[in-house]
Design a protein that fits this description.
The protein has a domain of 157 residues. 5% of the residues lie in helices and 46% in strands. Strands 14, 15, 16, 17 and 18 form a five-stranded antiparallel sheet that branches. Strands 1-29-28-27 form a four-stranded antiparallel sheet, with no helix packed on it. A four-stranded antiparallel sheet has the order 2-3-4-5, with no helix packed on it. It is mainly beta. A hairpin with a 2-residue loop joins β15 and β16.
Length: 411
């Protein structure tokens, strides 16, 4: 496993001991939990073909970018209701001169499998020959469904014009709001919406944070980013970002807005609260990191990537205000993956792990207090999966079905 400094700027020996102990447990258990185990049995299985799922929806294993926008998702609205969505419109033109008119079907089920709501949403699916990203839907603020709309239009001169917006829907799939702005990100805990005001290439930027089931502006951030700021993430009451200096000449590290391939780096994570107080943690030379999100107590969840040969996974960590670092159980070192979904307190979280071109990877569900996963199963790349907000279930959208699985109680 990664041998990171578990404490930066602190002399608290117990924290060092605890982190090292966790690292040892992770190393010892690594071989055991990478072995194949029995496939879990779902409590609920719902065939979605009678509800409109096209018969060939899961026939293709390759999900490379195309010129037609399609949707496939499973999202928990709360611990008792889960939404699944897919496009019923074609994934390609039936003729070169006939554009595709998109239609997405959204379904909401209770945790015991009862259909509670159904809705079709028309959208502009055709990219007019341009490569487009897959349609996206995620958890929105306070139990809403965020249905993201990306489209390509033709303007009056026939040129391609990209547009972006989002729909917020309640648990009955009724409109709460439509916002025709580019969504910068959502926060980790409450899934509040973050938008940049206007567009600028400068370092001074303004952000609006909208929260609530009927989203209202909760705060506005006026932020002067350092020139070498990377991977900016917002929380409900603060923000965090990475800064990285690069060695452009021997033993001379400089801050620059350009990332140079092959240059050695010295990075640190900075967290800033609403009162503008800042705390920071330095990474080891050569390490970089991705900020996953900011937790309710102001701690920062991150994924450190080092230069250790054969370690594709990096290390999942929680950086804390007292400048200690908690190492979290994570995917095997030879795999690639990120946090896919999690409980708001990060007591449980899930990842899809793969690094190759095969049609499947592994869906892995972790409990923060256990070095071995709760679930470690083969999972198709063209499927989708999500952990419930209370960590007691996970749902998958695979092989033409919605499946809901139970997990053991939290202790």
């Amino acid at each position: 496993m990664d041998r990171k400094n578990p404490v930066v700027g602190s002399r608290r020996k117990p924290a060092v001991t605890a982190s090292v102990a966790v690292a040892c447990l992770l190393f010892i258990s690594w071989r055991a939990w990478t072995k194949e185990g029995p496939e879990p049995v779902p409590e609920v299985r719902i065939d979605l073909s009678p509800l409109g799922l096209p018969g060939n929806f899961f026939s293709a294993s390759d999900e490379s970018s195309s010129t037609i926008i399609g949707y496939r998702f499973v999202v928990w609205l709360n611990s008792d209701e889960v939404a699944v969505g897919f496009n019923t419109s074609p994934n390609s033109r039936v003729a070169p001169d006939r554009k595709v008119d998109g239609s997405a079907r959204l379904l909401v089920f209770s945790v015991d499998g009862k259909l509670k709501a159904k809705r079709d949403i028309a959208y502009l699916a055709d990219g007019y020959g341009e490569l487009v990203a897959e349609g996206e839907a995620t958890a929105g603020p306070r139990g809403t469904l965020l249905f993201r709309i990306q489209s390509v239009n033709l303007d009056k001169e026939g040129a391609h014009e990209s547009k972006s917006g989002l729909l917020l829907l309640d648990a009955n799939l009724r409109d709460i709001a439509r916002i025709d702005r580019f969504l910068e990100q959502t926060t980790f805990v409450d899934h509040a919406l973050v938008f940049q005001e206007g567009f600028t290439l400068g370092q001074s930027r303004t952000y609006d944070v909208l929260d609530g089931s009927e989203p209202l502006q909760a705060r506005r951030w006026l932020q002067d980013w350092p020139i070498d700021a990377r991977d900016r993430k917002f929380g409900e009451h603060g923000l965090a970002y990475m800064v990285c200096q690069q060695e452009l000449r021997p033993n001379e590290y400089v801050s620059t807005g350009v990332v140079y391939a092959g240059a050695k780096q010295r990075c640190k994570m900075l967290a800033e609260s609403e009162d503008r107080s800042i705390w920071e943690i330095s990474l080891k030379d050569g390490e970089t990191a991705v900020i996953v999100g900011i937790l309710a107590d102001g701690s920062v969840l991150g994924q450190i990537n080092g230069n250790e040969k054969g370690n594709n996974a990096g290390q999942l960590v929680v950086w804390k205000k007292d400048k200690t670092i908690e190492l979290l159980p994570w995917i095997p070192r030879n795999d690639c993956g990120t946090v896919q979904s999690a409980t708001t307190d990060m007591s449980r979280y899930a990842a899809f792990a793969t690094c190759d071109e095969r049609d499947s990877g592994r869906w892995i569900v972790f409990d923060r207090r256990s070095p071995t996963p709760l679930v470690n199963r083969r999972f198709p790349k063209n499927g989708r999966a999500a952990l419930s907000p209370d960590g007691l279930h996970y749902a998958t959208f695979e092989s033409g079905e919605l499946r809901i699985y139970s997990l053991p109680q939290l202790h």
